[in-house]
Amino acid sequence: QVHLVESGGGLVQAGGSLRLSCAASGLILNINVMGWYRQAPGKQRELVAAITSGGITNYADSVKGRFTISRDNAKNTVYLQMNSLKPEDTAVYYCNADIVTIKGYLEVWGQGTLVTVSS
Length: 119
What we know:
Layout: E1 2-7, E2 10-13, E3 18-26, E4 28-39, E5 46-51, E6 57-59, E7 67-72, E8 77-82, E9 91-101, E10 104-109, E11 113-118
Parallel strand pairs: 2-11
Antiparallel strand pairs: 1-3, 3-8, 4-5, 4-9, 5-6, 7-8, 9-10, 9-11
């Protein structure tokens, strides 16, 4: 079994900052891409940011310049630093990872963490 556990969500005022963390645990041989997605009420889940094991990043246009994704490969952990938050960033944020285990390849999702930005 492989699990992703997220933390760091909460309530923040517009213009504020939050840092999300997501740690992978289990029988992990390697983790390729790790990413953050979000889903706002009534909307489809969308990619926020992703990072490869080599540190190549990709961001949604709506968060470029405000959010930063990073990872610590030794800790199997990915982070999302969110600055200059806007009410439209309110959503459940999900961690996602492409993980190689002793049983093969798995795409794993976290349980989600709620981020609420008040105006």
